[in-house]
Each structure stands twice: as structure tokens, then as C-alpha cells.
């Protein structure tokens, strides 16, 4: 589904072929953004030990980031929709890099928290920009594949970025993981300046604010938002504390990065499957994937104390979850006539879920990982029931 405004984002009418090179650049920006977002999860024990705070308190970094995105996704998207998208993407990459530098240089929990807030402001807009560009660049019948290609940055971040950052942080100190990510972001900012058109138009024809915020009145889009909030709350209740979960099952600290590598690799497979089916059977794919996630989380509670089974389930978890962002994004795009509104709503919904899930997981952590898995799985079952309200048009 494209509009004249999204055609202008692309710098011209939608063409028959996907602009793979530009979409890969957008995917690389997503990769760096998600690596910055998730890296504290992989390095949570090291950060807590170095700063002298509890692991649940370091979870505040995850929650603060998510709160900023949840509150800022729609208003920030409405604001930046009026500006040339090349400039917006370049600035966002540099803000991400600056947040990582501040995190490394700060040396305290509170400075780190401020750095995460800064990164959250960048994250509030980045998915709206890249998804709107991807949709505008692509023919309608390949919209799902274009979003899947851009979203591959999420899978690569989970498969490579976070495990590599975790391994570097474990071996050399947690700050080096963020240094490496900052360097990548500066390189991507330079690539954006060189490769994206200088005259890339605003994302919406009327300047963005009224059209993006006005979509909040659309019931079909709100249904997708509610599904995403409940689903991600269940996922994040467990995933925020996946390192303690793995250690509790008997996985050594040095092997956590390898398990996260398997999780990320499987997420790429899930993404590829989603990209192949999303344009043909989107609702069936969404409901099947949500059901599979519920099964995996419940089985994690049963697998307590078995390292091999827990590792297999975490990897399977990655494969299932890797498909969900594309499927939810497509459902949101189908529910609106303003493409930038869809990623903004999904982004906000994801981060409401991340915030609530991280807080819920932190409060339940003392009860043990099996309790986290049961609660998370129950919430995903509730999200599955809510998917019956999602309709295509």
C-alpha cells in the first residue's frame, strides 16, 4: 500500500524491482540501532558488577530506553516527517553514536541511564524513517519483502551484533562493546550522507504531524498496537533476563554469547520465512508464530536445570521471534493509509511492552527463571487470542 507521499520519499514512482542497495543500507542502520538497544541484555552481569549495582537495577537501562521510545515514537515521527529523510537518518546515526560514547565515558550508573535516554530518542524515529523509505521505494506487491529486507538488520544484530558485542565486552570489558557499536554508527552516518539522495522528500505530504498523529483514531491500527504490547510484554519479561536464565540452567558465562549467537542466527531464518509468506498469508503466519512463541516460553519453564534443552529452546525462541516484527509491521501497514504511522505505532507498542516486561521480569527475578517463563508464556497466549481481532482489508 503506497500513496503519492510515499512515492516522493523514494524520489519517484515505485518501480518493479526492489532497490536492494538502498534497502541494505537501511537494514545496516537498523542493525546498529538494535545492537545498541539490546547490548545491555548480553552484558548485564558485567555491567552490574563493574558499577556495583544489582542486575535488576541495570534492567532500568532497558526500561528507560523503552519508555523514551514508547512515549516519543509518535510525536518524534510526526516531527521528523517534515524534514529530508537523508538528513534525519544521518542525524539519528550520530545521536546513537554519541549516546554510546557518553555511556562509555560516563563511568556511573546514572550517566549510563542518561545515555540510554539519548539513544531512546533516536530509536523513537529510526524505524519510522527506514520503513517509510522502504515502502516508498518498493512496488505494493513487494511491500512485505521490502520491510523484511530492512528488518533483516534486526536479525543480523541479534545474530552478530549483540553476540559479538557481548563477547568483546566479556573479554575486554563491557565498555568496548559499546565503543565498537559507536564506530559502526559513525561509518553508517557517512554512508547515509553519500548514498541517499540529497533531496529525499519528507515522509508525508502535509508535513507529517496531523496525518501521523491522526492515525491514532483508526481502530484497526489500535488493535495491532494492543496485540504488539501484550505480545512483547510477554517476550521481554523473559528475554531481558535471558543471561540469568541461561546461567540458572547451567550455561557458563563465557558460553552465553554463543547461545545468543544461535538465537540471532535462528532469528534470521525466521525473518526469511516471514518475508517469503507475509505477502501471501499474513494473518495465518502471524497467528502461527505467536502460538509457537507461547509454546517455547512455557517449555522453558519445564526445562529448568537442563542446559542442553534450555539452549535448544532459546535458539528456537530466536527463530520464532525473528518473524514477528515483519508480521506485525505488515499488519500495521495494512491498517493505515499513512505509512510512517505504522512503524511509529509498532515501535511505540514494542517499547511499551519492553518497558513493562523488563519491570515485570525484574520484580519476578528473585522467584526464579521458571516463573518468568510461565508469566511470559501466559501473556503471549493472551496476545494470540487478541490476534483474532486483526483483520485485513
UniProtKB/TrEMBL annotation:
Domain of life: Bacteria
Membrane topology qualifier: Multi-pass membrane protein
Residues spanning the membrane: 60-81, 88-111, 117-135, 147-168, 174-196, 216-236, 256-277, 284-303, 309-328, 340-365, 371-390
Short name of any one Pfam family annotated for the protein: MFS_1
Location relative to the cell: Cell membrane
Domain Major facilitator superfamily (MFS) profile: residue ranges: 21-393
Keyword terms, alphabetized: Cell membrane, Membrane, Transmembrane, Transmembrane helix
Predominant cellular place of this UniProt entry's protein: membrane
Family matches, as CDD domains: MFS_NepI_like
Name this protein carries in UniProt: MFS transporter
Amino acid at each position: 500500500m503506497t500513496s503519492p507521499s510515499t512515492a516522493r520519499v523514494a524520489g519517484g514512482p515505485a518501480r518493479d524491482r526492489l532497490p536492494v542497495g538502498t534497502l541494505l543500507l537501511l537494514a545496516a542502520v537498523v542493525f546498529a540501532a538494535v545492537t545498541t538497544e539490546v547490548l545491555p541484555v548480553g552484558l548485564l552481569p558485567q555491567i552490574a558488577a563493574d558499577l556495583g549495582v544489582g542486575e535488576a537495577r541495570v534492567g532500568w537501562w532497558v526500561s528507560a530506553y523503552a519508555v523514551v521510545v514508547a512515549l516519543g515514537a509518535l510525536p518524534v515521527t510526526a516531527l521528523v516527517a517534515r524534514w529530508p529523510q537523508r538528513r534525519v537518518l544521518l542525524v539519528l546515526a550520530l545521536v546513537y553514536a554519541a549516546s554510546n560514547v557518553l555511556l562509555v565515558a560516563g563511568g556511573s550508573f546514572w550517566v549510563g541511564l542518561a545515555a540510554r535516554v539519548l539513544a531512546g530518542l533516536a530509536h523513537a524515529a529510526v524505524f519510522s524513517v527506514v520503513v517509510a523509505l522502504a515502502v516508498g521505494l518498493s512496488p505494493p506487491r513487494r511491500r512485505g519483502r521490502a520491510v523484511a529486507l530492512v528488518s533483516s538488520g534486526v536479525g543480523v544484530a541479534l545474530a552478530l551484533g549483540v553476540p559479538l558485542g557481548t563477547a568483546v565486552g566479556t573479554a575486554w570489558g563491557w565498555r568496548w562493546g559499546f565503543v565498537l557499536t559507536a564506530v559502526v554508527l559513525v561509518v553508517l552516518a557517512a554512508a547515509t550522507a553519500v548514498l541517499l539522495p540529497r533531496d529525499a522528500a519528507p515522509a508525508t505530504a502535509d508535513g507529517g504531524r496531523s496525518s501521523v498523529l491522526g492515525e491514532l483514531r483508526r481502530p484497526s491500527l489500535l488493535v495491532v498496537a494492543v496485540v504488539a504490547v501484550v505480545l512483547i510484554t510477554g517476550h521481554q519479561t523473559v528475554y531481558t533476563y535471558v543471561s540469568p536464565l541461561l546461567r540458572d540452567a547451567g550455561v557458563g558465562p563465557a558460553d552465553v554469547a554463543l547461545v545468543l549467537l544461535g538465537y540471532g542466527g535462528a532469528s534470521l531464518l525466521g525473518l526469511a520465512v516471514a518475508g517469503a509468506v507475509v505477502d501471501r498469508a499474513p494473518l495465518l503466519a502471524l497467528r502461527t508464530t505467536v502460538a509457537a512463541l507461547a509454546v517455547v516460553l512455557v517449555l522453558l519453564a519445564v526445562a529448568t536445570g537442563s542446559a542442553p534443552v534450555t539452549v535448544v529452546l532459546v535458539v528456537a525462541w530466536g527463530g520464532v521471534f525473528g518473524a514477528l516484527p515483519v508480521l506485525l509491521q505488515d499488519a500495521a501497514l495494512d491498517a493505515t493509509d499513512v505509512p510512517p504511522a505504522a512503524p511509529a505505532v509498532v515501535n511505540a507498542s514494542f517499547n511499551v511492552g519492553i518497558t513493562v516486561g523488563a519491570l515485570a521480569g525484574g520484580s519476578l527475578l528473585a522467584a526464579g527463571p521458571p516463573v518468568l517463563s510461565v508469566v511470559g508464556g501466559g501473556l503471549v497466549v493472551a496476545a494470540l487470542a487478541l490476534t483474532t481481532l486483526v483483520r485485513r482489508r
